[in-house]
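Why this split exists: single-chain examples teach little about how molecules sit against one another. For that reason, every record in the complexes split bundles all components of an assembly together and asks for one structure covering all of them. Below is a record exactly as it appears in the raw files.
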Amino acid sequence: MGGLVRYRGVEHQQRDFAEFYATSRDACLRAVTASVGDPQVAEDLVAEAFARAWTGWRKVSQHPAPRAWIVRTALNLSVSWWRGRRREVPLADHDRAAGASALPPAPGQGLDAATLAALRRLPARQREVVALRVFLDLDTAATASVLGIAPGTVTAHLTRATAALRRDLSQRETASPLRKELS
Amino acid sequence: MNDHEVLDEVRDGLAGLHMSTPADQIIARARARRHRQRLTAAAATTATAAVAAGAALGVTLTGTTAPPAHGGHQPTQLTAFTLHSGPHGTSVLTMRKGDRLNPAALRSALARHGIPALVTVGRLCGTGGQPSDLSRVVSTRRAASGIVRLSINPAAMPAGMRLSIGYFSSATGFALISDSGRLTCTVGRPHGPQPATRVGGAPKPGQPVTRVGGPKAGKPAS
């Protein structure tokens, strides 16, 4: 009897987790992609973060912002990932970060390379603020809590990030007037 | 563009990005990760237990066991000494100089092999006026430097007698002592007419000791 109850509990948890995953995975992926700048790396990080969430699902499901937990875990993993690889020698142009030309739009990826390039030019903290405020729709207080910074700092980062993005995106529109017409 | 338009454009720029990994794969990944963690934890626990056991061996001289080579008593293997059953009902004692000897551990190990003994560190105890049966009870084997190896025959132990072992840093002395006799312990120098056996180290002038196992094995010191 106890085993049956436990099985039903696990089944319920699995269903609960699957529902959370289905409704949150894309938003988390976009937020992490905006922060790390690489969709492939972001997908791996988010998958690992969700796997960790499933391991501790009882606690994570009680978290006030489980999506923010996923993104925060993925970003922490990103730091560990880079720490483990910082002594590696990259191949020529293999992971060049700057410029839209360095990241041609990959067919089927469904992302705007220019937007991603503009995000990558932002400082890391500004990218994280944009990721949480824009892609997870967290308010200033929640963003400040997740990042461990003051709400005023969140506002300042978002203001600067918005200004930089506006500048970048305006230049793109100026340089490619046909882009909007073609898209 | 106002701020909202900028942020909307950023949101739209990544709107086509979708997570392709199915939920089942995430759960499988979590299970694999948990399995790895359990294996790692089990390995760490085993390693910790092994280290703790090694430390216990070094400090308290509790032993490990292996099947007896010739039947009889379960062997006791320690860092400072090893005691196991030898042929013809004998017990083989190997002592390693330089390791800290726990006399109580050696005494109890000998007792388990049917050898009543008195083990002392830094002194050798004897009783006067006893017959010399030591050579029938204890015989030496050739051993590497720093190792004393003795074959002890408990069947040859006279009734009412015990084996006295005096453990020194550079030598080990042996004697047979009577349970009823007056026990005299001396630092490095056994008293009484009964020859004692001393393994390793230089003989002391005038010492009533029989040296075996050293450079002049078997040669009476006096």
